[in-house]
Amino acid sequence: MATYSSVDYSTNAPIAIGGITREGKTYYYSITTTAALTTADVLNFGYVPPNFRLVDAILKPSDLDTNGTPTLTLNVGDSGSANRIFAASTSGQTGVADRTNAYGSIGFKFTTKTLITGAPAANAATGVAGTIELILRGYVEDSATS
């Protein structure tokens, strides 16, 4: 089992919380793996702030399964639901970006500071190391009025 973390997570980079209520926020995370991913691996992307409401997500891994019949799928979520944002995304089979595909994730509100994590839902047929990029877009609601 390996744990891979983005630079933001590893350096404990601060998350932007302030600003105008409902002002758009974009969080970008990039993780580089040193070996093929397995279902035992953990991906620590980084945190979103309290009261962050998700409106869009893009998952862009490199081609992490080079087999002619790839099998790798990726989940992205949090401690409450491992596949809250992406459920068995096949984007790692081809290196093509995937938009949010998990039912109910658009509009989901993270009520506390939340670590966004990921892991393979299924192993690759022929796995290789690569990069996994995640972009989350949303806004932070005013906790007093939300």
Fold and architecture overview:
The protein is an all-beta fold. It has one domain: Jelly Rolls, CATH 2.60.120. It is 3% helix and 46% strand. A five-stranded mixed beta sheet has the order 1-3-9-5-6. Strands 2, 4, 7, 8 and 10 form a five-stranded antiparallel beta sheet that branches. It starts with a strand and ends in a 6-residue tail after the last strand. The model has no long low-confidence stretch (mean pLDDT 89).
Secondary-structure class? mainly beta
> Quick one: CATH class?
Mainly Beta
Cα distance spanning the termini: 40 Å
Oligomer status: single chain
Strand order of the largest sheet: 1-3-9-5-6
Shape: globular
Portion in helices: under 10%
Query: What is the number of beta strands?
Result: 10
CATH topology: Jelly Rolls
- Work out the helix count: 1
List segments where confidence is low: pLDDT < 50 over at least 5 consecutive residues.
none
Do you know the CATH architecture? Sandwich
Over the alpha carbons, how many angstroms does the gyration radius reach? Answer: 15 Å
The mean pLDDT is 89
β-strand amount: over 45%
Number of domains: 1
Question: Could you state the order of secondary-structure elements as H and E?
Answer: EHEEEEEEEEE
Biggest sheet, in brief?
A: 5 strands, mixed
Features:
146 residues, mainly beta, Jelly Rolls, five-stranded antiparallel β-sheet, 3% helix, 46% strand
